[in-house]
């Protein structure tokens, strides 16, 4: 969910395992700043805590992947719903082989989001609560879709969460399973 620490953990995974981290939210915010044709629509949807149309987000992710010289990616905050999942797999032809689910209470996520003070339009209590509702209604069914997922207690301190993440990555990399990861 929003504020579960997935972006923080992805940054550390990149440092240790050589993945390219792609944050769907960051790519959308960059598109807003660029003044693209979709920027205003994206900004309004983010303010409302809604999910941006799949074709917009998938196009941004696909472009970022194509522009990268890496073939190992962490995609953070995507897919957010079943439509996102299907669109991503259909357009890119990629089915994630490994999924991490950062399980964190709404109280802890809310505390983190309100405390991060990054000046984001979606970091206010009203939008945060909308994002939580969207997560429960739309994203949890996608998480259930992926049978090969690891559930991590993300309510612990950052270092403790990373110990678990590192162990999962190390074990799965040893067996050659880890080619594409969704965080």
TrEMBL record:
Catalysis performed (reactions): UMP + ATP = UDP + ADP
Top-level enzyme category: transferase
Family statement: Belongs to the adenylate kinase family.
UniProt keyword Ion transport, yes or no: no
Enzyme nomenclature, EC number: 2.7.4.3
SUPFAM superfamilies to which the protein is assigned, alphabetical: P-loop containing nucleoside triphosphate hydrolases
Single GO biological process annotation from the record: 'de novo' pyrimidine nucleobase biosynthetic process
MF GO annotations: AMP kinase activity; ATP binding
The name this protein goes by in its record: adenylate kinase
Keywords from the named record: ATP-binding, Cytoplasm, Kinase, Nucleotide-binding, Nucleus, Pyrimidine biosynthesis, Transferase
């Amino acid at each position: 969910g929003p504020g579960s620490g997935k972006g923080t953990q992805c940054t550390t995974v990149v440092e240790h395992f050589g993945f390219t981290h792609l944050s769907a939210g960051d790519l959308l915010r960059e598109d807003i700043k660029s003044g693209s044709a979709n920027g205003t629509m994206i900004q309004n949807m983010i303010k409302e805590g809604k999910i941006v149309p799949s074709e917009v987000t998938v196009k941004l992710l696909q472009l970022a992947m194509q522009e990268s010289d890496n073939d190992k990616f962490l995609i953070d905050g995507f897919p957010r719903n079943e439509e996102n999942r299907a669109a991503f797999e259909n357009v890119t032809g990629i089915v994630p082989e490994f999924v991490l689910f950062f399980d964190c209470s709404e109280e802890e996520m809310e505390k983190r989001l309100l405390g991060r003070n990054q000046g984001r339009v979606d970091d206010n209590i009203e939008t945060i609560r909308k994002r939580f509702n969207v997560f429960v209604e739309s994203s949890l069914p996608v998480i259930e879709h992926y049978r090969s997922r690891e559930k991590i207690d993300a309510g612990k301190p950052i270092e403790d969460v990373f110990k678990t993440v590192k162990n999962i990555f190390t074990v799965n990399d040893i067996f050659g399973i880890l080619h594409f990861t969704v965080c």
